[in-house]
Amino acid sequence: MILLSLLLAAQGTERLPHATPLPPPDAETAAVLVPINAMFAGLTARDGAAIMAQVRPEGSATVALERPDGTRSVRTLRWPEFVAGIEPGSQRIEERMSNPAVEIDGDIAMVWGPYQFLAGGRVQHCGVDHFSLVRDAGRWKVLSVTWSQRTQGCAPE
Fold first, then answer.
1. What is the spatial distance between Cα 41 and Cα 111, in angstroms, rounded to a whole number?
2. DSSP string, 38-58
3. Residue 70: φ, ψ to 5°
4. CB atoms within 10 A of CB 117
5. pTM for this one?
6. Which tens digit of pLDDT belongs to each residue from 5-55?
7. What are the residue boundaries of the structural domains of the chain, listed by start?
8. Cα 120 to chain center, whole Å?
9. Which residue, 97, 100, 99, is CA-closest to 115?
């Protein structure tokens, strides 16, 4: 009888139930996001020293690039090489990561989420960011960031 009632109630509707919003981040989750947000601010300011202050020196940045012609490549840079590639300029650059998933186990954490990279207010590329972090002396630091990068399929801002 219950199954019949459910089937009749669902007939003619193709709507999904309302989503349950995620709770606001707790203090530990917010603390994990601090160095990531500081790195994004350093990128916008084109300030390599601000980025370096958030990372473990033995870490790295890796990009998995997908070109419009379908070719792919992977490139890994040590942090000094990564920040050296941030060139001065007058055009505003900004990276925005939305709805990050944060997982924490003791002194390690992982943050994963879709991002958009904007230059002059326009989306230049998008993909997914994956940050690996470690807590050292009570402070979270980014050990590595890996991201996918493509120019197609990026939703406009």
1. 17
2. HHHHHHHTT-HHHHHTTEEEE
3. 95, -10
4. 19
5. 0.82
6. 444 444 544 555 565 555 556 899 999 999 999 999 999 999 999 999 999
7. 25-149
8. 20
9. 97
